[in-house]
Amino acid sequence: MLKSGLLRAAVKLTLPVFAAYWLIGFGYGVFATHLQLAWWFPLVTAALVYSGSVEFILASLMLGAFRPLAVFVMAFLVGARHLFYGISMLDRFKGAGWRKFFMIYMLTDETFAVTFANPVPSGLDPHRFQLVVSVLVWLYWLTGTAMGTFLAHACPAVDLPGMEFIMTAMFAAIFAENWRTEKSHAGSRIGLAVSFVTLLLFGAEDFMLPAMGGILIVLTLLRRKLS
């Protein structure tokens, strides 16, 4: 049984995440449905993949020839930042027992931000609090996706032009925010340059994987100068 104070504190802490996750999850459900994917696809990926950017990529890749290697590499590169999140949370997860596995699986950018930056309210078990926060954020994403999927299937005649642009817009917004806050634009410029060159060499259909590989190689070679 959850104590009312525990649940209340977790809901209060995650309300800003709810607004963002529910809206983007809703968009993902509509996006996947308008790509003519099965009704269960966005629900299953929302529950099990649980990585918004990877889910948008995976849904788009399902329209063409399935390339497992490309999916794996892109998912790894997009989610690699969670390696650093996980290292930062090792001390907090000590002694969590079985809860630790769920908290590791459900660790996202927003979950990390709200739990790492905010102290656990006094009188609450830190591991239970972390677990409840993680489950709430996961439910925000899942219910938003489910609602978007349901409405898109219930109103198939409704035309929502530009839905296929959601993923592009999301990554453009992330890039713009990163550009605004970063001290040096060297890494971003390298990413743009490598992407442009690989686009010219491989074309719009096949440039993404070479671009990611090229960016990784260049950043690795120049890591000392960029640090």
Helices and strands in order:
Layout: H1 4-34, H2 40-48, H3 52-61, H4 68-79, H5 82-88, H6 90-93, H7 99-105, H8 109-117, H9 126-154, H10 166-181, H11 186-202, H12 208-221, H13 223-226
Report on the structure:
The chain is an all-alpha fold. The protein has 2 domains: 4-154, no CATH class; 163-226, no CATH class. It has 13 helices and no strands. It has helices at 4-34, 40-48, 52-61, 68-79, 82-88, 90-93, 99-105, 109-117, 126-154, 166-181, 186-202, 208-221, 223-226. It is globular and about 60 Å long. The N and C termini lie far apart (48 Å). The mean pLDDT is 82.
Radius of gyration: 19 Å
β-strand number: 0
Roughly how many Å apart are the termini?
48 Å
Structure class: mainly alpha
Helix count from the secondary structure assignment: 13
Percentage beta strand:
under 5%
Q: Output mean pLDDT.
A: 82
Indicate the overall shape: globular
- Integer count of domains: 2
> Which sheet architecture does the biggest sheet show?
none
Low-confidence stretches: none
Q: Summarize the amount of helix as a percent range.
A: over 70%
Provide the succession of SSEs: HHHHHHHHHHHHH
Question: Top keywords for this entry?
Answer:
2 domains, mainly alpha, globular
Nutshell version of this structure?
This protein is mainly alpha-helical and 227 residues long. The protein is built from 13 helices and no strands.
